[in-house]
Specification:
binds iron/sulfur cluster; binds pyridoxal-5'-phosphate; alpha/beta; 10-stranded mixed β-sheet; 20% strand; globular
């Protein structure tokens, strides 16, 4: 893992401006999301400051700005926490936060405050309470194992997590949520994949934002997962200046489909602090998604969705979800109406 400018590939290190350097020096002391990138992901970046790969891991001084809409817990996960690191928000699915670290940090990360807090806290997941909860809540059919990135755990630890979940509830479907096949594909070697195979039905959900992230090594890793019977879903975050272009997204999803990966969600950005410069206005996102629907087969179109700020859950975004606009003390907001007729708010800009 590369955690300092000096350890970056020389062309990238040479591209670092003075103000970027100063900001990176401040990050640790201010308890912000750490600067870390894998050698593999860094090798995909170009030195230009607006390069879509570079921008995803390179700290930007605009992160220091806490915009009026920022929320430390943008998804309102704490409202649905039923045990330490365990969130039960939807009837039949629950989410385990199995690791607090990642193989490199995305500057747009929605859990950036959680990841940056109590960095030395040692915890063991799943907790006894989580396992008890799973035994009594038989309506839960699927557990998402997320974080952070669970693939930062070593194989023994990861195997223990999956075994404990399965022992508690042999009927569970498991979903491994990760970005490691993109950031550090060598982590998923034959041995790890063979271990994972024991836990089928197991799905993998991978965060991919740009066609250039699909390196030859990542493609091989996905092929190995698919041949091992682990289907892969793709989640993409709509990011300003990185992938907010229908033709580029269509190219990304076509590449994924060619590899046998299923586009699943295109996410509107969550309101984590210091990420507003990545936000694509909602109306523009809707226009991009509409155009995208003409560029790839409709059955392969990922669902455009947002986790409604404040714990409203995931909702599918479409023109009719916006029922009005209001001016709050934070600024202009859309009024959104979810499937149950409840009203929520999301910033206009
Ligand atoms: C996203 C999410 C899920 C899974 O939702 P899907 O629509 O099945 O991908 C489950 N629990 C929580 C808390 C989530 O945020
Ligand atoms: S991999 Fe996921 S949890 Fe980790 S920094 Fe990126 S968005 Fe955040």
């Amino acid at each position: 893992m590369i955690c300092s400018i000096e350890n970056l590939p020389p062309v990238l290190a040479a591209s670092v401006g003075k103000w970027e350097k100063n900001y990176i020096a401040k990050i640790e002391s201010q308890g912000l999301l750490p600067f870390a990138v894998t050698p593999h992901f860094a090798s995909l970046a170009r030195p230009e400051r607006d390069d879509p790969i570079r921008r995803q891991f390179f700290p930007d001084p605009r992160e220091a700005i806490r915009g009026p809409f920022a929320l430390d817990d943008p998804l309102g996960e704490s409202l649905h926490r039923v045990a330490a690191g365990f969130i039960h928000q939807y009837r039949d699915r629950a989410l385990l936060l199995a690791s607090k670290t990642c193989a490199g940090y995305c500057r747009h990360c929605f859990r950036r405050v959680w990841i940056s807090s109590d960095r030395d806290a040692k915890r063991s997941f799943p907790s006894i309470r989580t396992l008890e909860y799973l035994k009594t809540h038989t309506e839960i059919r699927e557990v998402l194992v997320s974080g952070g990135d669970p693939l930062t755990l070593d194989d023994d630890r990861l195997e223990a997590v999956f075994s404990q979940l399965r022992d508690a509830r042999p009927d569970l479907v498991l979903r491994l949520c990760t970005r490691t096949p993109i950031t550090e594909p060598s982590r998923l070697d034959g041995k790890t994949i063979a271990m994972l195979t024991k836990f089928r039905p197991l799905w993998m959900s991978v965060h991919i934002n740009h066609p250039r992230e699909l390196s030859a090594q990542s493609r091989d890793t996905f092929a190995a997962c698919l041949s091992a019977g682990i289907p892969v879903k793709v989640q993409t975050v709509l990011l300003r200046g990185i992938n907010d272009d229908p033709a580029l997204l269509a190219g990304l999803f076509r590449d994924c489909l060619d590899l046998g990966l299923s586009p699943y969600y295109l996410f509107q950005l969550d309101l984590a602090p210091g990420t507003a410069h990545f936000r694509v206005p909602l109306r523009r996102g809707l226009a991009i998604h509409r155009e995208l629907s003409g560029l790839i087969p409709s059955a392969d179109l990922p669902t455009y969705a947002v986790d409604i700020p404040g714990g409203g859950g995931k909702v599918r975004l479409h023109e009719n979800i916006i029922v009005g606009e209001r001016e709050s003390h934070k600024g202009a907001e859309y009024i959104l109406k979810d499937g149950n007729g409840k009203e929520w708010y999301y910033p206009v800009e």
